Amino acid sequence: MKIKVVLEPSDEGGYTVVVPALPGCISEGDTVEEALADIRETIELYLDPADDDAHAGDGAIVRELAL
């Protein structure tokens, strides 16, 4: 999977990284390399499947979709 990220210089130094396709997925780092490593971990956590089955009501159908 490929996903675009946007790195912006931070006022305090370093970079802030956002993922436009994943609302609220944001990270930062002191260098471009550190910022990219941190956002990779943040994306992985963001996309990590939660145990949503516990929230499914009676009669609910739960399916997984491969993207």
Q: How would you characterize the overall build of this protein?
A:
With 67 residues, this protein is of the alpha+beta class. It has a domain at 1-26. Helices cover 24% and strands 18% of the residues. A three-stranded antiparallel beta sheet has the order 1-2-3, covered by helices on one side. A hairpin with a 5-residue loop joins strand 1 and strand 2. The longest helix has 16 residues, at 32-47. It is elongated. The mean pLDDT is 89.
Q: What level of helicity do the residues show?
A: 10-25%
Q: What is the makeup of the main sheet? A: 3 strands, antiparallel
The gross shape turns out to be elongated
Strand numbers in spatial order across the main sheet: 1-2-3
* Mean pLDDT level: 89
DSSP summary, beta strand count:
3
- How much β-strand is present in the residues? 15-25%
Distance between the termini: 9 Å
Question: Layout of helices and strands, plus pairs?
Answer:
Layout: E1 6-9, E2 15-18, E3 26-29, H1 32-47
Please give a quick description of this structure.
The protein is an alpha+beta fold and 67 residues long. The protein has one helix spanning 32-47; strands at residues 6-9, 15-18, 26-29.
List its salient traits.
67 residues; 3-stranded antiparallel β-sheet
